[in-house]
Amino acid sequence: MPVFFLGSGTAAILAQSKAASPYYARINSFGFFGAYSGDSSHILMGDAQNRKLLEFGVEYGRKLFVNRFVNWQYNGEILPVALESDPVVQNTVNQSSPEVETYVEPLAVQTAACVPGTQSYDETFTNNGVSVTYIGTVSTACLRKWTIGEGISPVGFQWNFLPRKKLQPIFISHGGYMYSTQPIPVPQAGSFNFTFDFGAGFEFYRSKTRSIRAEYRFHHISNHDTASQNPGIDNGLLQVTYSFGR
Fold first, then answer.
1. Which portions of the chain are predicted below pLDDT 70?
2. Alpha carbon separation from 20 to 23, 29, 177, 208, 212 (Å, rounded)
3. Domain coordinates of the chain in residue numbers?
4. What is the pTM of this model?
């Protein structure tokens, strides 16, 4: 009987010690996230302007090392929905001379951001001694074209600092690829692009197993010169993730 009580007491002490871990750091974690960027510019390498990104995906994390200063984790992401938006220019020509007519030019995607407006033209052309003057206006409308794709970032790491706190500063980075149904960000670029990102934010642990993370990332898309054009896209991406695990 004393041996039984001694064994039960030892098991209870070990269970309490395990439950009283000072770290908010899961061994394995899974998460769902959404990310959005409303603009792009030449931040580091990309030249395509005014591109938008909207992403929905899942992630897996695995603890690699933890102490009282940092929790180092593997972090991989899968993007079943990756939407990229390009600015599309549509020009409408309203000619008043020599004949009155209106026609709409085909949609055109360009690297620079679209600027709406109306411009007048007055041009004279001479052919075989006969001069004809064309007069009219060109109106530019700015539209958007969304392209759907998917992506995966199998190489990624996350560093959580001060893992004993419920609110932890983080740094995160990934590398992977994105495949789209059409070439992005211009028709002469490729449908297959490489991606990488890095950023910082905060992770708030509601409990030892569940948390909410928000970070701001630099996100880059590039075909690495595998197509005739490679303007690249640099975005500032805001991402929110709900994670759980043990």
1. 1-20
2. 9, 19, 41, 10, 22
3. 24-86+146-245, 87-143
4. 0.84
**79, β-bridge pairs:** 151
| Summary mean pLDDT of the chain | 92
For 88, list phi and psi in degrees, rounded to 5.
-120, 130
pLDDT in tens, 134-174: 999 999 999 999 999 999 999 999 999 999 999 999 999 99
CA distance 114 to 49: 9
What is the rounded CA–CA span in Å between residue 153 and residue 151? Answer: 7
pLDDT at 5: 45
Residue 204 and residue 162 in contact, taking contact as beta carbons nearer than 8 Å: no
* Cβ atoms 84, 62 nearer than 8 A: no
Per CATH, the number for 24-86+146-245 is 2.40.160.20
* pLDDT, position 9: 53
How many CB atoms neighbour CB 3 within 10 A?
A: 7
- Letter for the amino acid at 237? L
